User: Which sequence fits this backbone?
C-alpha cells in the first residue's frame, strides 16, 4: 500500500517541519491501513495521504497520472480518493473486466452527484439491476429506431445532420467575413445539440435562443463534476462548510435541475399535442412505450423524462467535443485536410452532397475519425463503475461495491498496441490495399465495453462521418496560429480555445442558410 520508493525519492527534500508532518501522516495512514479489509494489502498503488488519499496527485489530467501509475504498479492498481478506495483498470485488464466479467463490473457507485442526474432516475448513472436492464433495453432500441435502425431512419437522421451543417457553414462564412478569425466552439456545440434536439424533440433552435443557450452551456460544468475524481462524492464532508468544491457541487445540482425542467417541459408539451397514429420523435416514442408498451410493465411513466434526458444529455457534450477536435485537427494538419478533400472529391460529385452511402468508399475519412478518437481519447476515463459482487481481476480480489475507474486513454496510447502512439497519423488505420483495417479500429476505446458500452456508438459514428465529409467537401479550414493539442479535463477532454477561418471551396455552389438574426449570440461570444 505504501510507496516506499516515492518516500525515499522525496526524503532529502524535506524540512524538519515537513518530516514531523510526514511522520504523523504515516502513523495515521498505518492506523487506517490496519482497519482496512485485506484488499488494501493485496492491490498495489501509490501511497495515500491521510484524509485526502491520492486526490491531490491526480492533478488536471488524471488519465495521465493513472497511466504513469500503471507503468509502475501494473494494469490493476488502487488509489484512495478521500475515504474511498478506487481500483483503476488499464490496458488489457479493461477487457478482462468489462467483457469477460461483464456483470461483475457493470454497477455504478452510490455517489451523491449521480442522484441529481435525470431526476434521480438516470439509466446512465443508475446501478445495475432488473429495472436498469429494462431501462437500457428501451433506451437502446429507441435510439436505434431513430438513427441507424434501417435505411429510412438513416436517411431521416442524415437530413438532420445535413441541415445543421449547412446552417453552420453559413455562420462560419459570415464570421470569417466579419472577423477574419473566430472561435468555432459555441457554433459547434449548438449545431450538435440541435441535431439531437431534432431527433429527441422534433425541434431545432436558433443560435441565439436564450433557453437553449443555457441548456447547452451547462456541458462543461456537468462534465467537471462527473469526471474521475469528483471530490464531493469521495469526500462528502466538503459539503459541511463553504469552499470552492462545495460551490461547484451546488452549481452542479442547480444545472441538473434546470436541465431536467427543460426536459420535463418538452415531455408535457408532447403529451398535450401527440397523436397515437404518428410518432414525431423520440419523446413521443418513449411516452407510448412507457404508457402502453412492454416496458410499461417494469418502468413507470416517470421514466419518460429521465430516459430522454439521459439520451439528450449524453449526446451533447460527447459529440460536440468530438467535432471540436475534428475541426482542430483539420486546421492543425493541412495536408491531412487536403487528403480528406481529395478522397471525398473522387467519390462525391461536386454537384451533390456526401451521403451515408458514400461511407464505404472513403476509408481515409473513417481512418481520420478513428485517429481523432484514439489520439485525443476525449473520454479518457469512463463514467465510474462499481462491482456488483465480490469478484477478482488479474488475480486480485475485489469486494462488491468497490469503485472502478476505467482508463480508456491507457489502451489508446499503449506502445505495445500502437506504433508511435503520440503521433497523429490516420494512415495507421488503412491496410496495404488502402482499406480500413477493422481489427485495428476495434482496438480504439472511447465508447467503453461490456454492459455499460455507450448506446450511441453507431449514431455517433454516422454523425461524425457525415459532419466531417460535409465540411471538407464544401469548405477550406485554416488557422493563423497552430492550435495546441492539450485539453481541459472533465468527463470529456476538450481542446483549449482556438481560432479558425473558413472559406468555400472552388466550385461549390451550395445554398447556405444565412441567419442574420443571431448577432447577439455571436457578439456575446467575443
Ligand atoms: C462520440 C460520441 C460519444 C462517446 C465517445 C460516448 C462515450 C460514452 C462512454 C465512454 C460512456 C460510459 C460507458 C461506461 O461507463 O463504461 C457512455 C455511456 C452512455 N452513452 Fe455515450 N458516447 C457518445 C455519444 C452518445 C450519444 C450520441 C448517446 C445517445 C444516443 C449516448 C448515450 C449514452 C448512454 C445512455 C450511456 C449510458 C450507458 C449505460 O450506463 O448503460 N452517447 N458513452
Assistant:
Amino acid at each position: 500500500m505504501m510507496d516506499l520508493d516515492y518516500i525515499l525519492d522525496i526524503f532529502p527534500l524535506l524540512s524538519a517541519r515537513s518530516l514531523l508532518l510526514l511522520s504523523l501522516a504515516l502513523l495515521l495512514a498505518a492506523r487506517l491501513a490496519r482497519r482496512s479489509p485485506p484488499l488494501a494489502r493485496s492491490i498495489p498503488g501509490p501511497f495515500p495521504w491521510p484524509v485526502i488519499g491520492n486526490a491531490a496527485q491526480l492533478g488536471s489530467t488524471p488519465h495521465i497520472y493513472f497511466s504513469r501509475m500503471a507503468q509502475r504498479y501494473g494494469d490493476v492498481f488502487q488509489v484512495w480518493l478521500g475515504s474511498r478506495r478506487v481500483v483503476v483498470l488499464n490496458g488489457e485488464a479493461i477487457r478482462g473486466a468489462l467483457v469477460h466479467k461483464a456483470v461483475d463490473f457493470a454497477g455504478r457507485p452510490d455517489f451523491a452527484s449521480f442522484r441529481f442526474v435525470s431526476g434521480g432516475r438516470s439509466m446512465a448513472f443508475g446501478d445495475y439491476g432488473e429495472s436498469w436492464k429494462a431501462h437500457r433495453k428501451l433506451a437502446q432500441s429507441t435510439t436505434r429506431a431513430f438513427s441507424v435502425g434501417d435505411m429510412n431512419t438513416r436517411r431521416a437522421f442524415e437530413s438532420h445532420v445535413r441541415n445543421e451543417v449547412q446552417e453552420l457553414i453559413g455562420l462560419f462564412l459570415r464570421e470569417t467575413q466579419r472577423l477574419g478569425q473566430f472561435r468555432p466552439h459555441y457554433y459547434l456545440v449548438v449545431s450538435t445539440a440541435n441535431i439531437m434536439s431534432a431527433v429527441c424533440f422534433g425541434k431545432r433552435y436558433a443560435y441565439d435562443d436564450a433557453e437553449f443557450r443555457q441548456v447547452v452551456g451547462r456541458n462543461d460544468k456537468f462534465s467537471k463534476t462527473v469526471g474521475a475524481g469528483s471530490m464531493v462524492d469521495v469526500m462528502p464532508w466538503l459539503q459541511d462548510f463553504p469552499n470552492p468544491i462545495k460551490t461547484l457541487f451546488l452549481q452542479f445540482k442547480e444545472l441538473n435541475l434546470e436541465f431536467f425542467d427543460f426536459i420535463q417541459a418538452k415531455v408535457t408539451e408532447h403529451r398535450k399535442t401527440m397523436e397515437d397514429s404518428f410518432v414525431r420523435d423520440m419523446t413521443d416514442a418513449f411516452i407510448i412505450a412507457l404508457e402502453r408498451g412492454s416496458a410499461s410493465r417494469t418502468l413507470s411513466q416517470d421514466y419518460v423524462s429521465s430516459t430522454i434526458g439521459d439520451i439528450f444529455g449524453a449526446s451533447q457534450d460527447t459529440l460536440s467535443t468530438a467535432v471540436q477536435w475534428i475541426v482542430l485537427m483539420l486546421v492543425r494538419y493541412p495536408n491531412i485536410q487536403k487528403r480528406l478533400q481529395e478522397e471525398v472529391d473522387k467519390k462525391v460529385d461536386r454537384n451533390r452532397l456526401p451521403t451515408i452511402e458514400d461511407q464505404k468508399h472513403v476509408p481515409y475519412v473513417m481512418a481520420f475519425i478513428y485517429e481523432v478518437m484514439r489520439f485525443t481519447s476525449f473520454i479518457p476515463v469512463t463514467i465510474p463503475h462499481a462491482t456488483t459482487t465480490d469478484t477478482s481481476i488479474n488475480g486480485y480480489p475485489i469486494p462488491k461495491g468497490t469503485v472502478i475507474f476505467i482508463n480508456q486513454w491507457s489502451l489508446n496510447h499503449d506502445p505495445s498496441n500502437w506504433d508511435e502512439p503520440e503521433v497523429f497519423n490516420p494512415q495507421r488505420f488503412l491496410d496495404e490495399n488502402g482499406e480500413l483495417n477493422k481489427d485495428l479500429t476495434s482496438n480504439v476505446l472511447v465508447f467503453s465495453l461490456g454492459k455499460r458500452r455507450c448506446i450511441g456508438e453507431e449514431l455517433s459514428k454516422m454523425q461524425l462521418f457525415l459532419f466531417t465529409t460535409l465540411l471538407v467537401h464544401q469548405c477550406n479550414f485554416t488557422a493563423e496560429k497552430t492550435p495546441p493539442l492539450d485539453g481541459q479535463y472533465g468527463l470529456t477532454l476538450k481542446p483549449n480555445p482556438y481560432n479558425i477561418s473558413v472559406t468555400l471551396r472552388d466550385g461549390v455552389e451550395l445554398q447556405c442558410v444565412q441567419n442574420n438574426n443571431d448577432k447577439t449570440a455571436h457578439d456575446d461570444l467575443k
The domain at 112-377+432-504 is CATH 1.10.630.10 (Cytochrome p450).
